């Protein structure tokens, strides 16, 4: 069953200027309920713009985005954020470092409620929910609720961000290179956590990565973006049997610098 359908998405930045950049060029993608999709593609291919378009941060010029059959186009970012969670590359983006772990979890938990967070006290019952979610991470954060997020390492912070993003089961989880700023061991740890949470909650997930091994190892489907379109879409057996060498080969065939429509090639 389709959860999210993108049809003929176009996005041009800085239209009408010398910097005009037609980034998404008629992109189509149909995402099934429960799909865990790795998204790969060269720098500037439009991967983040795709996720930003779904989240509503980028306003698309043409096409439509349907979540469970309903158009998101007119929905503001805040309304979409109740259904769509995001984790970014920079560990500082997902957590408020001047707040404690408990306060960060409370922000995620009360998100979308009209009453402001700071008027609403965290009850023991809420705290128990936070502790359960944090203990899933296996990092002992459940015993450090009063610690400022500023004292956490990058990996711990990304793990906390994942817990926050999935505390209220989102319809869609968007991960934009969420392990790229971490060392290889920590990156693998956060990927293992991602897999565990996605499987346990059966989350529909789009994960951008430049790590070809991760792109093959995680998820049931892999798409490659080039020049603002999906140029490769593999799943199941076809995906799991891919080797890094084959994927690199596909990548080189579908990459190269993306030039704007009217870019001048000098020299
Ligand atoms: N808000 C914006 N305003 C103007 N140009 C933008 C904006 N966001 C993205 N772009 C441009 O759109 C193009 C695609 O960017 P995007 O961030 O989607 O690429 P990406 O595939 O995520 O690349 P990377 O792998 O480097 O993260 C780039 O040329 C970028 O400079
Ligand atoms: Mg990007």
From TrEMBL:
Cellular location(s): Cell membrane
Protein name: ABC transporter ATP-binding protein
Pfam families listed in its UniProt record: ABC_tran
Domain called ABC transporter: residue spans: 4-252
Topology term for the membrane: Peripheral membrane protein
Keywords for the protein's UniProt record, in alphabetical order: ATP-binding, Cell membrane, Membrane, Nucleotide-binding, Transport
Superkingdom of source: Bacteria
PROSITE patterns (UniProt xref): ABC_TRANSPORTER_1, ABC_TRANSPORTER_2
Molecular function via GO: ATP binding; ATP hydrolysis activity
Species of origin: Streptococcus pantholopis
GO cellular component, one term: plasma membrane
């Amino acid at each position: 069953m389709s959860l999210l359908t993108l049809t003929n998405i176009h996005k041009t930045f800085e239209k009408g200027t010398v910097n005009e950049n037609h980034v998404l060029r008629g992109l189509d993608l149909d995402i099934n309920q429960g799909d865990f999709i790795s998204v790969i593609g060269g720098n500037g291919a439009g991967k983040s713009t795709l996720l930003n378009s779904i989240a509503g941060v980028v306003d698309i010029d043409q096409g439509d985005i349907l979540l469970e059959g309903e158009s998101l186009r007119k929905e503001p970012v805040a309304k979409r954020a109740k259904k769509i969670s995001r984790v970014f590359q920079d560990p500082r983006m997902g957590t408020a470092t001047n707040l404690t772990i408990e306060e960060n979890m409370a922000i995620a938990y009360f998100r979308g409620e009209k009453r402001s967070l700071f008027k609403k006290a965290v009850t023991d019952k809420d705290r128990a929910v936070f502790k359960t979610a944090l203990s899933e991470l296996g990092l002992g954060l459940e015993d450090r609720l009063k610690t400022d997020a500023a004292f956490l390492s990058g990996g711990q912070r990304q793990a906390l961000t994942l817990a926050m993003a999935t505390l209220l089961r989102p319809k869609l989880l968007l991960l934009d290179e969420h392990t790229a700023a971490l060392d290889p061991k920590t990156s693998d740890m956060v990927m293992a956590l991602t897999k565990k949470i996605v499987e346990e909650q059966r989350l529909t997930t789009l994960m951008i990565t430049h790590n070809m091994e991760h792109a093959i190892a995680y998820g049931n489907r892999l798409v490659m973006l080039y020049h603002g379109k999906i140029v490769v879409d593999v799943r199941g057996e076809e995906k799991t049997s891919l080797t890094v060498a084959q994927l690199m080969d596909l990548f080189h065939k579908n990459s190269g610098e993306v030039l704007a429509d009217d870019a001048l090639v000098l020299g």
